[in-house]
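Sample entry (384 residues):
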Amino acid sequence: MSTGRFRWRRVRAMARKEAWHILRDKRSLMMALALPALMLLLFGWALTLDVDRLPILVLDQDRTPASRELISLFEGSRYFDILGEADDYSVLEDFIDQERALGGLAVPPGFQRDLKRGQRPAVQFLLDGSDSNTASIGLGYAENVINQFSRRIDLPRPPLKVGNWPSEVPLEVDLRIWFNPELESKNYVVPGLVGVILMLIAALLTSLTIAREQESGTLEQLLSTPVRPAEIILGKMAAYFGLGIVDALIAVVVGVTVFQVPLRGSLLLLAAACALFLFGALCWGILISAAADSQLLAYQLGMLSSFLPAFLLSGFVFAIENMPRPIQAVTYLVPARYLISILQGIYLKASGLELLAWEFGLLAIFGAAVFLIATRALSRKAVT
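Predicted structure, serialized as C-alpha cells:
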C-alpha cells in the first residue's frame, strides 16, 4: 500500500510512463487525434437544423396576375422549391401522400376578384406533418411569404387590439436577430459539437487505463509502491490531458476554418474552459476505469456515461426548456451542458467571464468532486 507524503516527482514519473505507453500505441494515438476532426466533419455536415428548399407543389385555380404574383414570391424564397404545378387537387394530395412533396399551395378560383373587392380571399397551404418540427418551421415560412404578399398589395388588415384598447393603426415590427443573424444552424451546432467530442474523447481515453493495469496484473504492483492514489490519477491524467488539448485545438481550428463559424470571444477564455472541462472528464474516465473489472466493461460504461448524456441532455440537439421537468433536473448533472453554454457564449456572443462565472464554477466543482471520488475508489483497491 502506498505511503508517504504527496510528491510531484512521482506524478511526473507516472506521466512519463503513461506518455510512453501512448506513443508506443500508434493506432490508438492516431485514432485519438483523427477522431475529433472526423466527428466534427461528419456531424457538422450531416447534423443540420436548417430547414430550407422545402419541396412544394402549386395548384393555381385562378390563373390571374394576382395568383401568379403570389406564386412568384414562393418561387423567389430560398425556403421553398416549387416542383411544378398540379392540374387538380387530387394530384396535389397524391404528391404529398407519396412523399414526393412536403407541401402544396392551392390558390382558389376568384382570388383576384376578391382582392379587387377589398375582401381577404383564402389561400390553402398544405403540409406533411409527419415531421412536426419541419412542418411547423415550413408553416412559419409560408405565413411570412403570404404576409409579404399582403403588404405588397396593401390588403385591409383587422384592427390591432392591445388589452381593451382597439387601434386602427397597423403594427409595424422591426425584426432584428442578434448573434446569428443568418440563422445558420452550423453556428449553433459546431460549438456544441466541440463539447460533445471532448467529453467522449476524454472519457474513453482514460476509462481503459486502470482497467488495463488491472487486467495485466500491474495495478497491484503499482499500488504496493510508495506512489499514492492521487499521484497515480494525476500522473495518468497529465499524459492524456495534453492529448485532449490537442484534440480541442483540432476541433476549434476545423470549426473556424472549414465551417466558418465565427469565434467572437476570447481565445484564452475558450482554452481555460476546455482545460477545466477536460480535467473533470478525464477524472470521470479514471473513476469508471477504477470501478470496472475489465476494459470491455470500462469502454461500455465510458460510452454510456459520456457520449449519450452529452449528446442528448446537454442542450446540444434538444432544447432543455422543452424537456419534461424530471429530465430537466437530470441535465444539471451533465457537465457538457455547462461547457456547451460557455462555448456558444464565447463563439457567438463574445461573452466574458462575468457572464460565464456560474458555468465555470460548476465545472470546477464537478472536476474537484470527481477527482476526490476517483481517489477514494483507487484507495479502496489499494486496501483490498
